Amino acid sequence: MSYSLDESAAWLTSGAAAVAILLIAGAAVVQRRGSSRCAGWLRLLAVSAAVAALTGWASWHALEQRQAAPMQEAIASKHSCLVEFTLTQMVSSSVLEDPGIQEDGGRAPLGQRFRAQLTHLDCGTGAFRLDAPVLVSGRLAAGSSTEPGTRFAADAKLRDIQASSRSAARLSLDAPAEQLAPPGGALAVGATLRASFLMLAATLPGDGGQLVPGLAVGDDREAAEDLVAAMKTSSLVHLTAVSGANCALVTGAVLVIGRLLMRPRLERLAAASLALVAFVVLVTPQGSVVRASAMAIVVLAADAGGRRVTGSSALNLAVIGLLVISPDMSLDAGFALSAAATAGLLLGAGPLGERLSAWMPRPLALTIAVPVAAQLLCQPVLVLLDPRVPVHGVTANLLAAPAAPIATVVGLLACLLAPLAPPLAVVLAWVAWLPASWIAAVARVTSGWPFASIPVPEGLGGVLITAIPAALLVWWCRERGDSPPARLRRLALFAVMALLVTVALGVGLGQRVGSGLTRPDPWRYWMCDVGQGDAMLIRSTAGVILMDTGPESEVLDACLTEAKVSELAALILTHFDKDHDGAAATALPLAEQLIVPATGEAHGEGIVRDAATHGIPLVFAGRGDVFTFGDLALHVLWPARTSSGQPSVLSSNDGSLAVSVKPTASCRQACVSLIALADLGEARQNELMSEAPPELLSADVVKVSHHGSRDQAAELYRVMQPKAALVSVGAENGYGHPTRSTLDMLTAAGAIPLRTDERGHLVVAGSPDDITVWSPPQALAEAAAVPRFSANGWRASPLGDTALTGRAPPRSASRSRRSRTP
C-alpha cells in the first residue's frame, strides 16, 4: 500500500501525539512506584514527542497550502493565469540581458528572481484566494519598487518545483509584472530609510563600502562576488548580512537608555519591544533576525511577567514557536545556522572558557571560546552547504569580532539619520566604513593563507566528522571530577577526537596530494563524453551553464550526476542537429534561461516553443552580445545579425552559436579562457576571425569545431594559440572524426588534442599558466597519458606521451562500438 505525502504527514503527526500521551501516562505510573529519575526521563521524552506532534501538525497544514488544488491544476495545465503576489525578498537581479528588448535606450533585464506570497490565482475557471510562497522569475515593469510588501499583478505560468524548496511553485512571468501598490505603513518607512542609506553607502570606497550596508541593515547586494567568496573561506560570511547579535544590540541599547533615564521596568520593556519590531522591519525578516527576535520576545515577555528564563529555554521556545508558525523556516539555512551558533554559545562558550582559563587569562579564554563554540556547532550545517572546513575561521573571527559591533551600531545610526540629517549621516557612514574595511581586509588576508580550508566527505560522512567532535567537546567541557573513571572518559574522548581529526586531515591532504590523479576542484569546464555529439558544462560563481546536450538523455543524465549538477543557470543550444540538442528536453526543465542563436531557424524550433510554453526566459543571441555569469563573461562571436537587426538566415552548422568565454575581474580560481566554435566550417571561421575583436580571439582552451572534421581554418587556430584543444567525438564514428589533418593542424598551432573517444570526460581546471585536464582513471589507463600543461608547454605523465600526437590506444571494445549521429 502506498501513501501520498499528506497522508504520511497525517500518520506521523498522529503517531507522535499518541506516543506523547502514552509517555505521560507511563511517567505517572513510574512516579507512583517511586522511580523519580525514570519518570523524569519519560516526561522529557513525552515533551519531545508532543513538540514533534505540534510541529508535524503545522507542517501538515502548510503542506495543504503547498498542494492546494487550484495551484496543482494550474501547474498541470501549463497555461497562463492571472496572478497577484506580494514580494517578500529579492533573490537576484538580472543574470542575463536581452539585447532584443530595449527600454529607455538601454538593455532590459531578462530575468529577476524573488520570493513572494501568491495571493490570487485565476486560470479562467474561477478566481481563488491563496497564501502560498512562490519563487518568481521574470521582469517587473519599469520603475516598480523591489521592496518587500510591494503588490504586483501579472500573467504567468506556474511550474513545479523540487519538494525541498521553501516555495510551493515557480512562477514564470509572461510579461513585466505591473505594480498594484507599493509597501505601506511601517514597510514604506523602512524602504525609504534603506533607499537613503544605500545611496549614501554607494559613495564609500573599496571593500568597506560594500560591507557597510550588509552590516548595518542586512543588504548585501552590493558586495562583490570575490569579497563574498573570501568571507566564506575565512568563515566571516555571517558579517555580510545582519545577524542575530544585532537584535541583541538594539534591544540592549534601548534597555540601557531606559535604565539611565530611570523609567519604569514595563516602559523599558515596551520600548525595547517596539525598537525590536522597528529594527526587523528596517532590515527585513531574515532567518537569523527572526530567530533572534523570537528569543528576545520570549525574554522580554518573561521579564514583564516577573520571571526569569534561561538562554537555552528561550532558544527552544523561539525555535519551536517559529517552526509551528512557519514550518518552511526549517529549510532556511540562515535560520538553522543562527540557531546552531546560539546553541553553541549557550552550551559551550562558558564551560570552554572556564577550561581554557586554566592555561590563559580569563578574558582571553572567553574571547577564544565564543568563536570556537559557535563554529563547532555550525559546522555540521555548513558542510551540507559546502563540504569544507575553514581552518582559519576562528582566527579570522577573533580579529574581526571587535570591529563588527562598531560598524553595525554606527552604520545603523547613519541609516536612521540619512533622510533627516544627511551631513551627520555622512560622517557616521565614514566612521562605520573604517571597521568594515578592517573586516574585509581580515577576510582577504586569511582566505589567502595556506590550507585555508580542508575538504571533508559530502553528506552524512561530513556531518558526522564535524558533529561528533562538537558533541564530545560540549560533554568534555561539562565533565567534572578527577576520579579514575573521569580521567578514563576524558582519555577516551581525546582519542576519539584525535581519530576524527586525523581522518579529516587525511581526507583533505589526500585530495591535495592526489590532485593530479583525481578530479580537480574547482573545475571550470567539463566536456561530457556523449559519443558523437557535444555537451559541455561551464562553471561560474553564478551557476553552471550547459552548452549543448548531446544526442541521448541517459548519457547526459549520467554526466550531470557525476558532475553533481542539478540546476543550470542557462542552457545554450548552439544549433539544432540531434547530436547537439537531442537531450534538450531533459536539460530544459533544469535551466533558468535558454540561449539560442539569432537565426530564423531557431525561431521555428520545437524546443524554443517549449521554453516559451513553460515560461523559461529565452534569448536569441548574435555577434556582439555579452552575457555575464558571476566571474565569467560569454562574448558571442557568431552568428551575425543582418544590417536591419533581423535574425540571420544561416542555418544548421553555418548558423551555429560560437562564443568566447573570458574570466571577469572578480575571478579568483580556475580563471581559464575558452573559445567554443560549435560546428562552424572553414568559411564561417574565417568570417568570424575577420569580424571579431582581436582580444576575444585568444584562448587557453578551444572546443574544436565539428568534432574535429577537416573543415577548419588553420589560421584561426594559430591566432587563438590555445594550449589545449578539446574534441568531442564518438569512437569509430564512421565519419573519420577527428581527421589526421585537423590533429596535425592543432599540434602545429601549439595545442594538445584531447579526445572524448579516447579519454572520456575532459575536465579543465588550474590557471592559464598551469592548466590541468582530468579524465576518468579507467580512460586514462587506456589512453596511457595524464593530460597536464604548463606555461612552458606539455608535461607528460610517467605513463607516456602519446597524447602529444593524439595517437593514443583505442578504448575498450565495449566502449568503442558506441557510435553516435554526426
From TrEMBL:
Q: Pfam families from the entry?
A: Competence, Lactamase_B
On whether Endoplasmic reticulum is a keyword of this UniProt record, the answer is no
Q: What are the record keywords, sorted? A: Cell membrane, Membrane, Transmembrane, Transmembrane helix
Q: How does it sit in the membrane?
A: Multi-pass membrane protein
Where in or outside the cell it occurs: the entry states: Cell membrane
- Which residue ranges traverse the bilayer? 12-30, 42-63, 236-257, 269-287, 333-352, 364-385, 397-417, 459-478, 490-510
Spell out the SUPFAM superfamilies in the cross-references: Metallo-hydrolase/oxidoreductase
Q: Which residues are in the Metallo-beta-lactamase domain?
A: 529-586
ComEC/Rec2-related protein domain location: 215-479
**Main location per UniProt?**
membrane
- Location of the region described as Disordered in the Swiss-Prot/TrEMBL record: 797-822
What name appears for this protein in its UniProt entry?
ComEC/Rec2 family competence protein
Source organism of the structure:
Pseudoclavibacter albus
